């Protein structure tokens, strides 16, 4: 009782302080806000007034009506942005229609201010006058337009609800005279609540034991908040009164006119007014009933589907078990749809931030769950309100309560991102520590886990959400002072007609229908959380233990049966696993074959062109440049590595085999350094090789694999070194392992990463640009292990890294000789080679390789083109790609073999050129009728030997001559004789030009000879002419004698063949 008495004194002190502050302002003039009276729901004919009454109204012009901005719904509703509605507003509309007088509505923050404004003649009429105003002297009252039956509200404890003895009673400020209330409830402390919400919250949370207020107002408020657990105990024991209009006692004519107008309202209309605001008796809405302007109708026609961004926020909007959108806002939109013809399409969203983003970027037109804030009004418009809720705190069930936002100073408040109150809280309550999350559920979870002290939610949503948690985990706390979340629609400012249509719909929405919908969704209490959520955790553990014991017992009793079933299952799983492994192996093989083909194809062009350059240079008597040699060797090494590096199965199974050979150490390492010299120079780094004299010599090892290891180490060292250099040191003595160290001055590696570096797919955290696969060092370790060696890494962050290889490589006594590829034997007659490939680069390379040996080349880009050429022209050899669009190499071969069999022709040699060197590919080539599979890249020497092995024809082709002369023997004889004379003449001219170094004459003679060679298909002579022509063009006198001798020999051979052909024609067998 003592505590209650102190609490009552604090309430009274606060109330007196507010009155004092208000009185300071009222000494000058009561502050008011203009309100708009909503249009009348029905029209009445004007009354016939007496002349004196008409004169009185004319003198006053506009009747000024004062209203109190308090929680008096449905009597006075003022929460919707200066729009005045409610029971009093309906009666005012009817009175204005009866009297024919315009009204001006002014709202006052406190009831006392409105009363004083009436006394000071600032207003003419005061609405909602009841017991409180009747105690004020100097006022007169109209007849009551609504009963004011007081009731006592208490907590619903489940037993017979009653006010305990000495219990505190709260009453709404300005509702009744406190002395009258004391007389009605003697022995009960009285406290004044500044608002209806605060008074009823105090009852719900046990701060006071009762609340006295108007029955209609109380029922309207509590009907939407059944979760508060309130009930009406009995009547309020106050004298019977009613709501009336208050005027000054001296304004008798006005009082009389009000009474007359109220008396003219018939009882059915009175009941309709009361029913509009107190029951859900609205009529059905089946047809569109909103009158749209021409622009609005045009907009509706252009936008039949309105995109609504929707995030779940029960009970306003959420999805049911079938996935359909339901809730209060969904029903309101359904009614708006029937009233306007608009169709609403819901777009799912996961958070407030996503809602706002969708509205910003125009992927949605409106939202139904966004509250109004200054930041949002920059790009959103908000419709009229169709209800609202206050903001409340949600706190831990056993945690400290929160009385106000000031109490949250220094504490953590969890909110969804871009919450309507976020900006206000940052500005007005900077000491609150905000913790932003995506959804309300996440915010409540933070509170439940103790990571946040509270969160904010609307009343209905908070009570419903808390009910879903196990009992005692969360509870709803106090409401936020001054916080109100109006229910309205948020529309993009770019769609003003949509906002106008929605506002018209809400204005025409039947009040009773809207109230019924709100009660349906907001008045229903969610049940408690499911039973399984309310069971204590230890019960679950006990049940789990019991079930485990029973399961073990069952398994023990049926052990033999379980073992049999398990064995059968394991066997089936093994069979399935084997099938899966075989399928994976086949898929891997196919993948590796494809990768090998895709990499070998472009590399074949590179290697072919480099090899041509080397051999061409050697034929001219020179030596290839070091750069060409390095590029050629690197490309060859890469092709050699493809076969094993891409074969993951071979690495995993340990079947990778080393191919050791005798290698001289110094040239080996110098070639590696030269390969990376350009990269080091580009990065302005030192790249230095130190090879101890005692380590120099010839060793037996696999140069490809050791080169692969060194390439990996040097590549990493250069990549992670920004300044300084990379140093290679080779040490070794007879009888001891060869030690190779690679040291850099780079960023270094910390100890934690060093332990993981040699594992597959592990990269250093500072890897630039995400390069690499993380396989390099792992492969290095495997290769070094295959060499029976060791690899060690040491590093200091910021100073550099050193990798040491210890390899037990055997020494070889003698240095290996330098092997130079011998040029292949070139046939004495040019073969007619048909090269078929759909890739121009491959046709170019293979064509040049074949032409290098003096053969005639024709290229075709498809199998169809090649088949047509073969049918019309003689072909000695066909080199074709396997896989081509349209007719493949296999199909081309099969078509040629069929045509040869039908015509009885000798089979032409056909070679398949492919980047896939697997046995399956070779078998497929043989089945198609090909002679041999050639794996890309084609080695020049191997190709030369292959073509040379196809036979050595005569110096020129008699078949060509026969076709030219249509096999006319006399014409052939004359042509051979003329050719013999021309060759003899050209020999004389060439000898003279060579002896005098007459380059123009020499080139002219060579040009004539090349024409002759092409005419009779004399390939050896053509090749010799081409070589001599190169020297003549470049005027290389030192090579002239050798090349002239070669040409002279070819001309002599041609002359001998002509002589032999003439003899055979003269003396046929």
Automatic annotation (TrEMBL):
Residues 594-811 form the Histidine kinase domain. The modification Phosphohistidine is found at residue 1007. Residues 1-29 form the signal peptide. Keywords: ATP-binding, Cell inner membrane, Cell membrane, Coiled coil, Kinase, Membrane, Nucleotide-binding, Phosphoprotein, Signal, Transferase, Transmembrane, Transmembrane helix, Two-component regulatory system. The modification 4-aspartylphosphate is found at residue 881. Its EC number is 2.7.13.3. It catalyses: ATP + protein L-histidine = ADP + protein N-phospho-L-histidine. Residues 968-1065 form the HPt domain. One of its GO terms (cellular component) is plasma membrane. Residues 832-951 form the Response regulatory domain. Residues 560-587, 962-996 form a coiled coil. One of its GO terms (molecular function) is ATP binding. Its main location: membrane. It holds the Pfam family SBP_bac_3. It is an enzyme of class 2 (transferase). It is a multi-pass membrane protein. It is found in: Cell inner membrane. It comes from the Bacteria. The keyword Aminoacyl-tRNA synthetase does not apply. This is histidine kinase.
């Amino acid at each position: 009782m003592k505590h209650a008495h102190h609490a009552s004194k604090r309430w009274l002190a606060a109330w007196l302080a507010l009155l004092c502050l208000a009185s300071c302002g009222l000494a000058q003039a009561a502050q008011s806000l203009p309100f708009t009276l909503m249009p009348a729901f029905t029209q009445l004919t004007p009354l016939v007034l007496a002349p004196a009454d008409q004169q009185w109204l004319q003198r006053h012009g506009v009747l000024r009506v004062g209203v109190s901005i308090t929680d008096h719904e449905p009597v006075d509703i003022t929460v919707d942005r200066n729009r005045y509605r409610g029971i009093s507003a309906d009666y005012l509309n009817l009175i204005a229609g009866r009297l024919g007088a315009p009204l001006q509505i002014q709202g006052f923050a406190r009831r006392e201010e409105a009363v004083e404004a009436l006394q000071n003649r600032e207003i003419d009429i005061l609405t909602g006058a009841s017991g409180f105003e009747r105690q004020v002297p100097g006022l007169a009252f109209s007849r009551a337009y609504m009963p004011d039956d007081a009731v006592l509200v208490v907590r619903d404890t489940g037993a017979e609800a009653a006010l305990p003895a000495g219990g505190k009673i709260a009453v709404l400020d300005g509702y009744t005279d406190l002395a009258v209330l004391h007389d009605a409830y003697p022995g009960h402390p009285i406290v004044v609540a500044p608002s209806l919400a605060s008074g009823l919250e105090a009852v719900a949370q046990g701060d006071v034991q009762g609340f006295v207020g108007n029955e209609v107002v109380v029922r309207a408020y509590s009907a939407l908040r059944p979760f508060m657990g309130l009930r009406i105990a009995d009547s309020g024991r106050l004298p019977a009164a009613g709501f009336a209009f208050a005027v000054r006692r001296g304004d008798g004519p006005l009082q009389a006119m009000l009474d007359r107008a109220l008396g003219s309202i018939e009882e059915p209309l009175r009941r309709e007014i009361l029913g509009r605001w107190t029951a859900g008796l609205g009529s059905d809405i089946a047809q569109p009933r909103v009158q749209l302007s021409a622009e609005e109708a045009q907009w509706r026609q252009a936008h039949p589907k309105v995109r609504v961004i929707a995030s779940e926020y029960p009970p306003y909007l959420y999805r049911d078990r079938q996935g359909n959108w339901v809730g209060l806002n969904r029903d309101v939109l359904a009614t708006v749809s029937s009233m306007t013809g608009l169709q609403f399409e819901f777009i799912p969203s996961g958070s407030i931030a996503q809602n706002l983003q969708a509205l910003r970027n125009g992927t949605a037109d409106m939202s139904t769950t966004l509250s109004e804030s200054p930041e949002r009004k920059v790009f959103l418009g908000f419709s009229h309100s169709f209800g609202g809720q206050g903001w409340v705190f949600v706190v831990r069930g056993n945690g400290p309560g929160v009385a106000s936002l000031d109490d949250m100073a220094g504490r953590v408040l969890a909110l969804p991102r871009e919450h309507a109150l976020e900006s206000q809280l940052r500005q007005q309550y900077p000491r609150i520590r905000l913790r932003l999350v995506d959804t309300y559920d996440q915010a409540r979870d933070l509170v439940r886990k103790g990571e946040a002290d509270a969160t904010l939610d609307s009343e209905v949503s908070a009570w419903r959400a808390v009910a879903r948690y196990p009992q005692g985990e969360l509870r709803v706390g106090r409401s936020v002072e001054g916080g109100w979340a109006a229910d309205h629609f948020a529309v993009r400012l770019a769609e003003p007609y949509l906002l106008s249509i929605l506002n018209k719909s809400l204005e025409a929405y039947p009040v009773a229908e809207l109230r019924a919908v709100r009660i349906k969704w907001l008045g229903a209490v969610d049940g408690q959380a499911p039973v399984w959520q309310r069971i204590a955790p230890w019960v679950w553990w006990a049940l789990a233990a019991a079930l485990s014991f029973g399961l073990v017992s069952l398994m023990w009793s049926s052990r033999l049966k379980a073992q049999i079933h398990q064995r059968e299952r394991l066997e089936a799983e093994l069979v399935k696993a084997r099938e899966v492994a075989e399928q994976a192996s086949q898929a891997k093989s196919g993948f590796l074959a494809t990768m090998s083909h895709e990499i070998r194809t472009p590399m074949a062009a590179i290697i072919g062109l480099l090899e041509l350059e080397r051999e061409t240079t050697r034929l001219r008597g020179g030596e290839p440049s070091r750069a060409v040699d390095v590029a050629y060797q690197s490309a060859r090494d890469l092709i050699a590595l493809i076969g094993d590096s891409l074969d993951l199965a071979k690495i995993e199974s340990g079947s990778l085999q080393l191919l050791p050979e005798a290698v001289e150490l110094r040239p080996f390492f110098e070639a590696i350094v030269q390969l990376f010299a350009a990269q080091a120079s580009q990065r302005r780094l030192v790249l230095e090789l130190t090879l101890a004299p005692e380590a120099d010599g010839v060793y037996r090892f696999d140069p490809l694999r050791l080169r692969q290891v060194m390439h990996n180490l040097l590549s990493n060292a250069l990549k992670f070194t920004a300044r300084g250099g990379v140093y290679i040191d080779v040490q070794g003595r007879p009888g001891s392992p060869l030690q190779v160290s690679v040291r850099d001055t780079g960023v270094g590696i910390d100890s934690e990463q060093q332990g993981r570096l040699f594992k597959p797919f592990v990269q250093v955290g500072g890897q630039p640009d995400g390069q690499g696969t993380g396989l390099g060092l792992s492969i290095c370790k495997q290769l070094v292990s295959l060499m029976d060696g060791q690899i060690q890494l040491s590093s200091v962050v910021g100073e550099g890294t050193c990798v040491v290889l210890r390899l037990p490589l055997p020494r070889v006594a003698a240095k290996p000789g330098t092997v130079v590829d011998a040029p292949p034997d070139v046939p004495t007659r040019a073969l007619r080679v048909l090269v078929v490939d759909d890739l121009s680069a491959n046709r170019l390379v293979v064509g040049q390789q074949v032409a290098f040996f003096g053969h005639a080349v024709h290229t075709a880009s498809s199998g169809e083109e090649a088949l047509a050429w073969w049918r019309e022209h003689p072909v000695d050899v066909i080199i074709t790609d396997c896989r081509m669009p349209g007719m493949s190499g296999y199909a081309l071969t099969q078509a040629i073999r069929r045509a040869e069999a039908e015509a009885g022709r000798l089979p032409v040699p056909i070679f398949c050129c492919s980047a896939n060197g697997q046995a399956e590919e070779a078998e497929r080539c043989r089945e198609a009728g090909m002679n041999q599979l050639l794996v890309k890249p084609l080695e020049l020497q191997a190709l030369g030997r292959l073509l040379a092995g196809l036979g050595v024809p005569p110096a020129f082709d008699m078949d060509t001559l026969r076709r030219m002369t249509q096999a006319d023997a006399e014409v052939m004889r004359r042509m051979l004789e003329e050719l013999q004379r021309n060759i003899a003449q050209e020999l004389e001219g060439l000898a003279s030009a060579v002896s005098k170094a007459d380059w123009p004459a020499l080139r002219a003679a060579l040009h004539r000879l090349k024409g002759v060679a092409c005419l009779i298909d004399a390939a050896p002579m053509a090749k010799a002419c081409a070589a001599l022509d190169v020297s003549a063009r470049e005027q290389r006198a030192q090579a002239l004698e050798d090349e002239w001798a070669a040409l002279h020999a070819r001309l002599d051979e041609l002359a001998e063949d002509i002589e032999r052909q003439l003899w055979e024609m003269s003396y046929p067998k």
